Amino acid sequence: MIKNKNANMLAEQTLKIIIAAMAVLLLLYLLFALYSMFTQKQEFARAELTLKELSERMIDARRKGTTETYYLTKPDGWVLITYNSGQEQPKECIHNCLCLCEDEPGWWAFWDWDDQVVKCNKRGVCKDYQEDLKDINEELRFHADVGYSGGKY
């Protein structure tokens, strides 16, 4: 009879440990989800600010007739891309567009068949221009020479 009592205690303790482990995993998942949501909002806000600053520098360069270097560093894993009229464009664009969109390649990129326009529609910030834009498709962490010549930025 003693063996049976020990076996029941072992089964009870094992069940408690399994339930505790599942609870810890659930808490870790929830923490990760909250953290991801917070960082995504931060990255989107950084993208909006970066595009606003770049647009202001473009307007300044046009007004002054100069070209200056502007370093684009935030947010990581995003791409600066232009869409001129006549091309497939994100929904926000009417004429010519300068967009900052998420483009995070990783081990899952093999299964990610979305083209860049779809990615910009999902998670991107765009600004429309009447003027033509030079073709740009650069990952961030580069410098952009901002200027206006020949009717183009």
3D structure, described in words:
- The chain is of the alpha+beta class.
- It contains 2 helices and 6 strands.
- It has helices spanning 2-64, 116-122; strands spanning 68-72, 78-83, 96-102, 124-129, 137-139, 142-146.
- The strands form 2 sheets. The chain has a 4-stranded antiparallel sheet with strand order 4-3-2-5, with helices on both faces. A two-stranded antiparallel ribbon has the order 1-6.
- The protein is elongated and about 90 Å long.
- The model has no long low-confidence stretch (mean pLDDT 78).
Question: Topology, pairings included?
Answer:
Blueprint: H1 2-64, E1 68-72, E2 78-83, E3 96-102, H2 116-122, E4 124-129, E5 137-139, E6 142-146
Antiparallel strand pairs: 1-6, 2-3, 2-5, 3-4
In short:
This protein is of the alpha+beta class. It is 46% helix and 21% strand.
| Unreliable residue stretches | none
In total, the number of strands is 6
Q: Which class do the helix and strand fractions yield?
A: alpha+beta
Q: Helical region count?
A: 2
Averaged pLDDT: 78
- Cα distance, first to last residue? 87 Å
Question: Helix coverage percent of residues?
Answer: 40-55%
Question: In angstroms, what is the radius of gyration?
Answer: 25 Å
Please give the order of strands in the largest beta sheet.
4-3-2-5
* Secondary-structure element series: HEEEHEEE
Task: Describe the largest sheet.
Answer: 4 strands, antiparallel
Can you tell me the overall shape?
elongated
